[in-house]
Amino acid sequence: MAKIQITIPPIGESISEVTLGAWLVSDGDYVNEGDELVEVESDKATLPLPAEQSGVIKILVEEGTDLKIGDAVAELDTDAVGAAPSAPAPAASAPVATPTAAPVAATGGDKNYPSPAAGKILAEKGVDPSSVSGSGKDGRITKADAMNAQASAPAAKTASAPAAELSAQLPSGGASREKSVEKMSRLRKTIASRLTEAKNSTAMLTTFNEVDMHNVMALRSKYKDAFKDKHDIGLGFMSFFTKACTKALMEIKGVNAQIDGDNIIYHDYADVGIAVSTPKGLVVPVVRNAESLSLAQIEKEIKRLALKGRDGKLSVDDMTGGTFTITNGGVFGSMLSTPIINIPQSAILGMHNIVERPVAVNGQVVIHPVMYLALSYDHRIVDGKESVTFLKMVKEMIEDPARMLLDV
């Protein structure tokens, strides 16, 4: 019997530990070479671990386990090609859903039998697997089926004695006393660690300005249909701000720099990180050489990276090496904030919501759409004059977008 170990491969520079995510196969399944076996969560991305050869898998490690590079997570019996295993017992440490019929054959599964990842999702939703129609092979319930399944009413929890006593004193329908505890994901722990490091290791300061969005909104409204017809992508505000920032970054070099020991590294290019909120947390994929891209190219690259982030497909390379970051809290309704620097970068631009406000135009008070901007920067590299000048340049280019497009 030839067996090979499935181990955690090197994922990227500086990554030494990962967390095992959802198993995409069951213990005893027959898998083909290239099949995705399990999700691996690093501090930057969630990546699938494929089978190097075909065979029958034996799961050794349960979901949620913290592992080091090189640790074994499963064994693959490569002599079992084309053969069905005889009712293999699940590994003691692996969370495997219990089927209601016969054990799963190596070449498929029984109808309504969920994969481990699907079983976990259904259990969290309180959905009976027998009520879900599987779209996988032989009717197997896939992860996507489970995510789309309709949740049933959650079962009532038993209240603790103090809570029950308090509940008796409350009117019917009184306040809940329930709470839940969840383990922090590796991504969330990394976010927490990096934000704390940024606050503690930089001389961070924030400067603000306001931008009259009237002209850029009028330009977008006039050309958005023609833009979409020609480039097959929508014209949003992020491309305008990205382009404005790249032009300012080429002028104000310190905002596009970073400290390396006793040295300061200046960049003659702008790799702009765009903060994206995903189901697993905040990620910052990077638009490479954004200074050389057109508005349409920027929009397409942002969309491509955002979709990869939504689907958990971002690679480590997608999220490393940025020289400057833009975050848009305005999509969630934020009026004003002080964004935290994405170290080792020296600055980050925060965009906010657009609200109609009274502004003075040619001595007259008019109502225009206004956005507040915030630039957080590392005062060790960037002086106050540079930060204010940078933000003023961005403001002027957004308020008069023709300057930006004509490069004047």
Describe this structure in words.
The protein is α+β, with helices and mostly antiparallel strands. The chain folds into two domains: 3-148, RNA polymerase II/Efflux pump adaptor protein, barrel-sandwich hybrid domain (OB fold (Dihydrolipoamide Acetyltransferase, E2P), Beta Barrel), CATH 2.40.50; 186-406, 2-Layer Sandwich (Chloramphenicol Acetyltransferase). Helix content is 27%, strand content 25%. A hairpin with a 2-residue loop joins β13 (276-278) and β14 (281-283). α6 (237-251) packs across α7 and α6 crosses α8. The chain is globular and about 80 Å long. The termini are far apart. Residues 83-111 and 152-158 have low confidence and may be disordered.
Structural key phrases:
single chain; 408 residues; alpha+beta; OB fold (Dihydrolipoamide Acetyltransferase, E2P); Chloramphenicol Acetyltransferase; 2 domains; seven-stranded mixed beta sheet; four-stranded antiparallel beta sheet; 27% helix; globular
